[in-house]
Design brief:
elongated; two-stranded antiparallel sheet; mainly alpha; single chain; protein-cysteine S-palmitoyltransferase activity; two-stranded antiparallel ribbon; 9 helices; transferase; transmembrane helix; EC 2.3.1.225; acyltransferase
Length: about 350
């Protein structure tokens, strides 16, 4: 009796395998799809989900040392910003108020506005969630409609569906919607939920460093010790070494006068050097980010696609939509759509 049941079960399993045939199961809707044996990536015709049959690795917990590294960099950057703000106010206020009281008040108001906007936008970008993908049903045909998971893939780290333009960040240990990059200086990913705050932080920091450079130059001009008299008699003699001698005399005069600087003036010099160097780096990063937004891309999508891809989707309407101004984006969208149809 047992032998007959065993033979019957074996026959059933063989018939099921013959019915199913070669293929695999779609993770999105659960349908069994017949694909060639050499196919590694395929797209389901019912739900649109993309399945990768050769995954690289499975879920890994978020490394704690990366979290501590990011938090330390955030603390260092906050201390640096507070030092620049407090040091700049301490080194410049006596020069500004010596001109007139209204100039000092205006300077304090501008400094307060720039400081609050920079620290607030930095805090929003650093401590706000970068944007987790929405929770959607998957894995069962009755729950998944036709085309509901179009171009979705499956994240082996989170064991969840991953929408298009979503990437898993191993530093944050989560999938991030419209992920641009992971920035260690804010200790967070730049994604759909905090990308605007990150751009506002860059813009506010660039304006703040420009204002700090201007004020430090003006204050340094007012408080710098007088230079020693320069012997420029060799300027009247044309020669190859005349220019080098002038530069040498000026540098020596500045170094001799720098010995007489007070601690307040030394902080003023450091304020200019730090603000100017940070301004250059942040300006390049801000320009790069605005360029990607103009093209309708992120940094990761730029790396994964050629430079000339989706060039027709770029335009000022992407900038207006990104900053929450869809009303101003509609004329640009109409203009570019007409131009595109005219080109065709």
């Amino acid at each position: 009796m047992d032998g007959a049941m065993e033979e019957e079960g074996r026959a059933i399993s063989i018939s099921i395998s013959i019915i199913e045939g070669p293929g695999t199961t779609c993770w999105g809707c659960g349908f069994h799809i017949l694909v060639p044996s050499f196919t590694t990536v395929f797209k389901c015709g019912w739900c649109g989900a993309i399945t990768n049959q050769n995954p690289r690795r499975h879920g890994i917990a978020r490394p704690r040392w990366k979290y501590l590294r990011d938090r330390c960099l955030v603390a260092v950057l906050l201390i640096f910003m507070l030092f620049i703000i407090c040091g700049g106010v301490w080194a410049v206020y006596h020069v500004v108020f010596s001109i007139s009281l209204p100039c000092g008040v205006i300077h304090c108001i501008i400094t307060a506005i720039l400081s609050v906007s920079t620290i607030a936008s930095f805090s929003f970008a650093a401590f706000r969630s970068p944007g987790a993908p929405p929770i959607i049903p998957w894995g069962s045909y009755p729950l998944v409609g036709k085309g509901w998971l179009d171009n979705y893939s499956f994240c082996l780290y989170c064991s969840k569906p991953k929408p298009p333009r979503t990437h898993h960040c191993r530093s944050c240990g989560m999938c991030v919607l419209d992920m641009d990059h992971h920035c260690p200086f804010i200790g967070n990913c730049v994604g759909a939920a905090n990308h605007r705050s990150f751009i506002m932080f860059l813009a506010s920091a660039v304006v703040s460093t420009i204002y700090a450079c201007i004020m430090s130059i003006y204050a340094g001009y007012r408080v710098w010790p007088p230079l020693a008299s320069l012997s420029l008699h060799h300027v009247t003699r044309p020669g190859a070494d005349s220019g080098l001698k002038v530069v040498k005399d000026v540098v020596v005069a500045f170094l001799n006068s720098a010995v007489l600087l007070s601690p307040r003036d030394i902080v003023l010099v450091y304020l200019f050097v730090a603000s100017f160097s940070v301004e250059i780096g942040l300006s390049v990063l801000l320009w790069q980010q605005l360029r990607y937004i103009y093209k309708g891309k992120t940094y990761l999508s730029h790396l994964s696609s050629p430079e000339d891809d989706n060039i027709g989707d770029g335009g000022c309407q992407n900038l207006f939509q990104f900053f929450g101004c869809p009303y101003f984006a509609s004329p640009f969208r109409t203009f570019f759509s007409r131009k595109k149809s005219h080109d065709k």
